[in-house]
Design brief:
Distance between the termini: 51 Å
CATH class of the largest domain: Mainly Alpha
Shape: globular
CATH topology of the largest domain: Rna Polymerase Sigma Factor, Chain: A
Structural class: mainly alpha
Strand content: under 5%
Largest sheet: none
Radius of gyration: 20 Å
Amino acid sequence: MGEWPEATVSEGTGGSEPDRAAFLAFYQEAVSEVYGYFLYRCGDSTTAEDLTSETFLAAVRNLEDGRPAPLDIPWVIGVARHKLADHWRRRAREERLRDALEQDPVPDEDPWDVRLDQLRANEVLAALGPHHRLALTLRYVDGLPVSEVAELLGRTPNATEALLVRARTAYRRVYLEGEGGGHD
């Protein structure tokens, strides 16, 4: 990608040098945070590097499209969460395709039960509405306390608790429907 794209970091600036400098300074500050976020969740440095690149490319595109955003860690981690979700969905599709194409007989004992449970959990999350998916991901995947989830969602802690209750109920309902059960 050699040269800096003609991006605008804030509206109406036309990609001036101070904006580029601000974004580059932000990048240098945030890149290790974003990389660490992915490495912790993927356990693979190559995947973490790829997803980090995708995240900052998406951030630049967002700014180029005239959608100014705060250049801060919570904002770029939000972009990273979307990239991670896309990565897991893509990987799940690839694994399902690979499994469908394999002709090997199924062993008596399936060592993939845990992995399949993870894939099922990702499928159920993907089937939820974005507000439920985001609340559950922040709370249970990222392990954030309710107060931080509330702050990121712009809600009160009580409203966030109520949202989490509804999100868990929706998750349970979608999970059971996929298992052939329809009861809560």
